[in-house]
Amino acid sequence: MKVNWEGVYPAVTTKFTADDHLDHEMFAKNIEAQLSAGVDGIILGGTLGEASSLMEDEKDELVKYTAELAKGKVPVVMNIAEQTTKGAIKAAEKAKANGANGLMMLPPMRYKADDHETVTYFKAVAQSTDLPIMIYNNPVDYKIEVTLDMFESLMECENIQAVKESTRDISNVTRMRNRFGDRFKILSGVDTLALESMLMGADGWVAGLVCAFPAETVAIYRLQKAGKIKEARDIYRWFLPLLELDINSKLVQNIKLAEVATGIGTENVRAPRLPLHGEERKKVLQIIDEGLKNRPVLPDYLNI
């Protein structure tokens, strides 16, 4: 299935049972909510997916199961976050064999590669697969920035097609457009900058709070795409306190708590992560409760 790299791509959470196994039932319930809301793809194994704590067989199982659930309606994208080039190439091979339609790629993990090493890493993986690739550019959290000059070098790899733009510098959307035109699709990777990024020319949104609020997220994207900026902005302004739960070190726990509130998830996380407790939990619940209390009535955004 072709990956267009446009629209809303949820970076979905991985659902666990209380005894720390994959929770297929709740995962399927959440994916169905995403599909019903009109998302344009599903991304597995990102930060929200707790990829660093998943076993290899669990990653394989997740891709296979998600491909079954998606039934060709939307593409399934697997994140590649590996320590070695060899490991990344193997992960890409397995993702394809298990049914993934595309890859999202972080720079090498742990070792802080320089620009040349990072570009060589991306090229090696791209040349090993025919799957389309989105580069995840998040220097704030992962300490390596993929610069414009590095993207210039990556242009020779036709299957490197998109960037998840998470530099927190909104002008980077314009810099990418000025330098590369439409060569790379741009998807905002920061919930609190998503509408601003799309208004500046980003093609879509790799979203976090969509895990709990899929309809509202897709509505914002579809409305701004249709030129209904005020309608999109009104929903976004309501959404912002919730979106801020994504730019926090406890984003996984925050968003899973929001999923509980909307009936499409559980709080179960994999240790060493633990569910929120005490005052921290109380504050997050207050934000979620306030959002639910004032949840907007959405227009018929799927038919505009």
Automatic annotation (TrEMBL):
- What highest taxon heads this organism's lineage? Bacteria
Q: Does the keyword DNA-binding apply?
A: no
Q: What is this protein called?
A: Dihydrodipicolinate synthase family protein
InterPro entries attached to this UniProt entry: Aldolase_TIM, DapA-like
A Pfam family for this UniProt protein?
A: DHDPS
Which family does the UniProt entry place this protein in? Answer: Belongs to the DapA family.
Establish whether keyword Nucleotide-binding is in the entry: no
Q: Which organism is it from?
A: Roseivirga thermotolerans
- Keywords on record: Lyase
